[in-house]
From TrEMBL:
<feature type="domain" description="Aromatic amino acid beta-eliminating lyase/threonine aldolase">
    <location>
        <begin position="48"/>
        <end position="427"/>
    </location>
</feature>
<dbReference type="GO" id="GO:0050371">
    <property type="term" value="F:tyrosine phenol-lyase activity"/>
</dbReference>
<keyword id="KW-0663">Pyridoxal phosphate</keyword>
<dbReference type="InterPro" id="IPR011166">
    <property type="entry name" value="Beta-eliminating_lyase"/>
</dbReference>
<comment type="subunit">
    <text>Homotetramer.</text>
</comment>
<dbReference type="InterPro" id="IPR013441">
    <property type="entry name" value="Tyr_phenol_ly"/>
</dbReference>
<keyword id="KW-0456">Lyase</keyword>
<dbReference type="InterPro" id="IPR015424">
    <property type="entry name" value="PyrdxlP-dep_Trfase"/>
</dbReference>
<comment type="similarity">
    <text>Belongs to the beta-eliminating lyase family.</text>
</comment>
<dbReference type="InterPro" id="IPR015421">
    <property type="entry name" value="PyrdxlP-dep_Trfase_major"/>
</dbReference>
<protein>
    <recommendedName>
        <fullName>Tyrosine phenol-lyase</fullName>
        <ecNumber>4.1.99.2</ecNumber>
    </recommendedName>
</protein>
<feature type="modified residue" description="N6-(pyridoxal phosphate)lysine">
    <location>
        <position position="262"/>
    </location>
</feature>
<dbReference type="InterPro" id="IPR015422">
    <property type="entry name" value="PyrdxlP-dep_Trfase_small"/>
</dbReference>
<dbReference type="GO" id="GO:0006570">
    <property type="term" value="P:tyrosine metabolic process"/>
</dbReference>
<dbReference type="InterPro" id="IPR001597">
    <property type="entry name" value="ArAA_b-elim_lyase/Thr_aldolase"/>
</dbReference>
<dbReference type="Pfam" id="PF01212">
    <property type="entry name" value="Beta_elim_lyase"/>
</dbReference>
C-alpha cells in the first residue's frame, strides 16, 4: 500500500481561529459535561474529531450555490438539481430529500418493514446506532451478519466490512425469506472502523437476495470512500473511475439511505433513493408527515444546491486520495508508538482500541467513554465513544449490549485539518498512552432510554 501522503488538493481561502484552554480548565469542563464529549461546548475544544457528520469545509462552488438557492416551498429548482445529480451519479430514479440521514432511515424502516406479517428481521453488516433504532422502533429485530474478522480489532485484512455469505444464507433458511424485511448493507461500516465492502461481496449479496425475493438497501453515507478502497484494492478496478465504481456499487441495491453530511460534503441534509415506484409513492406520503414537502424534505433550497455540488466533488479522485491518506497518516503515527487501534485504518477515522489501551478496566467500567474523556482532558482533542455506551441496551432483557469492539473514534472532518493537526493529535494521545495505568473508569449517573450515548452523564469510579 502506498505510504506517500499527498499534499492538500486545495488552497485555504477562509480560516476560523481556535484556542486551547489549559489542562485544569479542560478537566473542569469535562466534569461539567458529565464526562460525555457530546456535552462539551465546542468553544472549549482545540481539535474537534467528534464526528465527520456535517463538519466538512465546503468549496467555493458550494458557497456560490448557496447564494443562488431557490427557497420555493414546492418545486424548488434546487430539488431538480439534486434529483439529477443522484440519478446521474448514483443511478436511482427516485429521490426523497430529508433533513439528514436518520430522517431517511425513519421513512425506509416504515415502508420496508411489514406490520402485518408477524416478526420481521433486518440483516446487516454490523449495526449503526440510529439505523438499528429505527428498525427496532418499527418492529423488526436486527441480526448482524458481518464477517467474523470485523470483530477482531487487531486483525489486518482487506474488506472487513463484507457480509458473511454463509451467515446470510443461514439466516434466510432459519427465519424464512418471507420474514426478512430487507438486508441493510453499509458502505463503509462505521462501527467496524470504517471498513469497506468489496464489489464482489455486493454482487453476491444481491444475487442471493434476488433469488429469495429480499430487497437490499444500502447505508450509502460513505459510498465514495468505499469506492476508493475498491479502486485501490480490488482486482479489476484499478483503471475504473470513482464515478464508474459508485454507479456499479448502487446497481446491486434496491435503494439507499444517505446522510449527506459525510460523502455529500454538506453541513446538513440526507435523502432516500429508490428504484421501486410503489415504495417511492409511500415515501412521499411519509416525508410530508415527518420532514416537509417531497421537493424539499426538511432542507432549504440553498442546502439542496450545495449538496448537488458536493455529491459531485466527493467523487473526485485527488480529493479522496488526500482524504484517505491523511487518516492513514494519523494511524501510522499512532501505530509506530504502539497505540492499539482497529486494523486496517478505515476510510473516515482512526479507531483506538480502548480494550487494549485500558486493559485494567472491565467493559462495565466504560473503557471507551473513559478514554474519550481522558483524551480531551489531556490534549483538548474531542473524540467519540464507540463501545458499550453506544451499543445501548437489549430491549427484551434490559442488559447492556456488549459489543466485541470497544473503541474511541478519531473522526477526521473533510477538508478541515492539516497534517500538522494530525501530528498534534498523535503526540497528545501517545503521551496519554504512556500513563494509561492511572486512568480510572466511569459509571452512569444519568442514562436516557434511547440513543443514550448522546446525552448520558458519568462520574469516576472511586476506590
Amino acid at each position: 500500500m502506498d505510504k506517500r501522503y499527498p499534499a492538500e488538493p486545495f488552497r485555504i481561502k477562509t480560516i476560523e481561529n481556535v484556542s486551547m484552554i489549559g489542562r485544569e480548565e479542560r478537566a473542569e469542563k469535562m466534569k461539567e459535561a458529565g464526562y460525555n464529549t457530546f456535552l462539551l461546548n465546542s468553544a472549549d475544544v482545540y481539535i474537534d474529531l467528534l464526528t465527520d457528520s456535517g463538519t466538512s469545509a465546503m468549496s467555493d462552488k458550494q458557497w456560490a450555490a448557496l447564494m443562488t438557492g431557490d427557497e420555493a416551498y414546492a418545486g424548488s429548482k434546487d430539488f431538480y438539481k439534486l434529483e439529477e445529480a443522484v440519478q446521474r451519479l448514483y443511478g436511482f430514479p427516485y429521490l426523497i430529500p430529508t433533513h439528514q440521514g436518520r430522517g431517511a432511515e425513519n421513512i425506509l424502516s416504515q415502508i420496508a418493514i411489514p406490520k402485518d406479517k408477524g416478526q420481521q428481521w433486518v440483516l446487516g453488516n454490523m449495526y449503526f446506532t440510529t439505523t438499528r433504532f429505527h428498525q427496532e422502533h418499527n418492529g423488526a429485530k436486527f441480526i448482524d451478519i458481518i464477517r467474523d474478522e470485523a470483530h477482531d480489532a487487531a486483525l489486518d485484512v482487506p474488506f472487513k466490512g463484507n457480509i458473511d455469505l454463509d451467515k446470510l444464507q443461514s439466516a434466510i433458511a432459519e427465519k424464512g425469506a418471507e420474514n426478512i424485511a430487507y438486508v441493510c448493507l453499509a458502505i463503509t461500516v462505521n462501527l467496524a472502523g470504517g471498513q469497506p465492502v468489496s464489489m464482489a461481496n455486493m454482487r453476491a449479496v444481491s444475487e442471493i437476495c434476488k433469488a429469495n425475493g429480499i430487497k437490499v438497501f444500502y447505508d450509502a453515507t460513505r459510498c465514495a470512500e468505499n469506492a476508493y478502497y475498491i479502486k485501490e484494492q480490488e482486482e479489476g478496478y484499478a483503471d475504473k473511475s470513482i464515478k464508474e465504481i459508485v454507479l456499479e456499487q448502487f446497481s446491486y441495491a434496491d435503494g439507499a439511505t444517505m446522510s449527506s453530511k459525510k460523502d455529500g460534503l454538506a453541513n446538513i441534509g440526507g435523502f432516500l433513493a429508490l428504484r421501486d415506484e410503489h415504495l417511492f409513492e409511500e415515501s412521499k406520503e411519509l416525508v410530508v408527515v415527518y420532514e416537509g414537502m417531497p421537493s424539499y424534505g426538511g432542507l432549504a433550497g440553498r442546502d439542496m444546491a450545495a449538496l448537488a455540488v458536493g455529491l459531485e466533488e466527493a467523487l473526485e479522485f485527488p480529493y479522496l486520495d488526500h482524504r484517505i491518506k491523511q487518516i492513514r497518516y494519523l494511524g501510522d503515527k499512532l501505530r509506530e508508538a504502539g497505540v492499539p487501534m482497529i486494523e486496517p485504518v478505515g476510510g473516515h477515522a482512526v479507531f483506538v482500541d480502548a480494550r487494549r489501551f485500558l486493559p485494567h478496566l472491565t467493559q462495565d467500567q466504560c473503557p471507551a467513554q473513559t478514554l474519550a474523556a481522558s483524551v480531551y482532558i489531556e490534549t483538548g482533542v474531542r473524540t467519540m465513544e464507540r463501545g458499550i455506551v453506544s451499543a445501548g441496551r437489549n430491549r427484551e432483557t434490559g442488559d447492556h449490549h456488549r459489543p466485541a469492539l470497544e473503541t474511541i473514534r478519531l473522526t477526521i472532518p473533510r477538508r478541515v485539518y492539516t497534517y500538522a493537526h494530525m501530528d498534534a493529535v498523535a503526540e497528545g494521545i501517545i503521551e496519554l498512552y504512556k500513563k494509561r495505568d492511572t486512568i480510572k473508569g466511569l459509571n452512569f449517573v444519568y442514562e436516557p432510554k434511547q440513543l443514550r450515548f448522546f446525552t448520558s452523564r458519568f462520574e469516576y469510579i472511586e476506590g
